Amino acid sequence: MFSKILIANRGEIAVRIIKTCRRMGIATVVVYSEADADSMAVELADESVFIGAAPAAESYLVADKIVAACRETGAEAVHPGFGFLSENAGFAKRLAAEGIVFIGPNPAAIEAMGDKIESKKFAGRANVSVVPGHVGEIDDTAHALKIAGEIGYPVMIKASAGGGGKGIRVAWKEKDVEEGFPAVRAEAKASFGDDRIFIEKFIESPRHIEIQVLGDKHGNVVHLFERECSIQRRNQKVIEEAPSPLLDAVTRAAMGAQAVALAKAVNYDSAGTVEFVAGQDKSFYFLEMNTRLQVEHPVTELITGVDLVEQMIRSAYGEKLAFGQDDLAINGWAIESRIYAEDPYRGFLPSIGRLSRYLPPAEGDVGGATVRNDAGVREGDEISMFYDPMISKLSTWAPDRLAAIDAMGRALEDFHIEGPGQNIPFLAAVMDQERFRSGVLSTNYIKDEFPDGFKGAEPTAFQADLLAAVACAMHRKLTARSAPQLLRDEWIVIAGPHERRVRLANGGDAFTVTFDDGRALSLTDVAWKPGQPLFRGTLDGTAFTVAVKPAAEGFVIRHRAAVQRVLVLTPRSAELHRKLPPKQAADTSKLILSPMPGLVVTLDVVLGQAVQAGQAVAVVEAMKMQNIIRAERDGVVKTIGAKPGDSVAADEVLVEFA
């Protein structure tokens, strides 16, 4: 077995690989850029090598630097993780020429399947059903418009070397191609060093189902069943699960057999994923093959008990698979939620900044379920604008799907992050939706369920009681500490537009909460002290965790997707509060603000120019994604607040209208 492996990646996947290597007794080396000098991966690895500036094109994508790091440290093999050089056949060949083992498929398999254009040609020759499209490179925007017109709208513009949701746009009309084609090409060049583009028909209301395959260098290939990845946003997977609630045993076997046959046809000898687009009628079409480890691999590991990173290492070393297809079975159900640094309340725009608080849920066995959190960050770490905005991957396993979903809901309650924006409330909202719980999924799910964007959720009856009870308990604990002479049992609680009288009896860590309709609930197992960001307890037999923080008046309390400012007042204070005039929001109708921190790529207007609503004004790049900023109203440009190449903060003024 290898004695030392170099990990040519960063973040959570580097940490994930280190954990398996430690268990196998293999020493690890990580490479790092300027932005990752103090990262968790650098701390955990046995050795680390600096490879350059923060942009990936100057560090993680430079093969010469990876090879030099292997020479410096004596690493015998390289695990590329996912993204960066993981599907680069030239890099795999370069390592082989240097006598270094690539922990991934052989270069020929990467060339046959890793390139999305070539894979479709290969699949067509192998009589595999593929999505209709143009199998070939696109020269320029005019060529793209011609092809899109021939295929018929809507179409999907995709980077040939793409992955991880990068380099993808759906075009519904010609204007979308005109704007989307150059943006996809730029993203592809920045993220993968390869700007080749292809176009295929976009199938509406599909499901995204993928088969995990695993091969060795002796011709053995198995599949480890499927994952459903239909909950996507901007073509980026957000929630994944294994197995799929769509498939029956017959369809599962058919998809698995097709994936294995395709893998065997290219002598596949590592972990890889054959992706399909599926209809609600269980029909399916080959989409592409990812010749690498997938981000969502933990759910497969949880239902099969197979460590995919270990199997990749053993295969690369030349070992035979220690199991056959008949040895594999699905055990239970697993869900993965991707925790992103983004603001779900502002269109999921990327967010950056320091993790001033990072409190993940406890891992391991929790009430009959299993919680796993794959992360590459710690409290105090910086979320950089240069890389993917993922903070961690939270996974839960349970004997059945609903139990796994319930376990995920509770784990999300226990996950607390402060600093950059994060999508935990949104993920919690999905877990609570009846449509998700029933398994009626499609890649349009987020668009269908949140057509106007995510605005949080109105509290349920239970949550309304919970927020009021927690606010009263917090108020009592704070009053007992600072002004015990003011303690009382009855209060007026104002939460959003609602007002109610609440009585709080007893004290300490157990309370009886009586509402004005006469209902009395028990609030027990209270675990909270002033200053703590999480309040844990049990309300009427239901365990909960809420995020809490003081406000100018009262508290801001969030349970899952429901968040409210809650005031606990005396009757006289409540009477006076009703007379306060509402605060007026500032008028920003004449301003075009940067919706996220990032780099201004282009500014497409000049002083005095008349601009129409919907017109592209600027392109701001953040987290390797190019975001087109549009005018929300007609106007004439009065001032311009930035220029191409400038770094801008969220809400910084780009353009002001007269």
Considering the chains and any ligands shown, give keywords for the structure.
658 residues, alpha+beta, Rossmann fold, D-amino Acid Aminotransferase, Chain A, domain 1, Dna Ligase, domain 1, 6 domains, nine-stranded antiparallel β-sheet, eight-stranded antiparallel β-barrel
Low-pLDDT stretches are: none
Bin the strand percentage: 25-35%
Number of helices: 17
Evaluate the radius of gyration. 27 Å
Distance between the termini: 69 Å
- Dominant shape: globular
CATH superfamily of the largest domain: ATP-grasp fold, B domain
Q: Which CATH class of the largest domain?
A: Alpha Beta
Q: How much helix is in the residues?
A: 25-40%
Largest sheet: 9 strands, antiparallel
The CATH architecture of the largest domain comes to 2-Layer Sandwich
Number of domains: 6
CATH level 3 topology of the largest domain: D-amino Acid Aminotransferase, Chain A, domain 1
Mean pLDDT: 92
Total E-strand runs: 40
The structural class is: alpha+beta
The strands making up the biggest β-sheet line up spatially as: 14-13-10-11-12-15-23-21-20
Would you kindly provide a written description of the structure presented here, covering whatever features stand out?
This protein is α+β, with helices and mostly antiparallel strands and about 650 residues long. It has six domains: about 5-105, Rossmann fold; about 105-130 and about 205-330, 2-Layer Sandwich (D-amino Acid Aminotransferase, Chain A, domain 1); about 130-200, Dna Ligase, domain 1, CATH 3.30.1490; about 340-435, 2-Layer Sandwich (D-amino Acid Aminotransferase, Chain A, domain 1); about 460-575, Glycoprotein, Type 4 Pilin (2-Layer Sandwich); about 590-655, Beta Barrel (OB fold (Dihydrolipoamide Acetyltransferase, E2P)). Helices cover about 30% and strands about 35% of the residues. The chain contains 17 helices and 40 strands. A hairpin with a 2-residue loop joins strand 31 and strand 32. Helix 4 (about 90-95) packs antiparallel against helix 5 (about 105-115) and helix 7 packs across helix 8. The longest helix has 22 residues, at about 460-480. The radius of gyration is 27 Å and the shape is globular. The mean pLDDT is about 90.
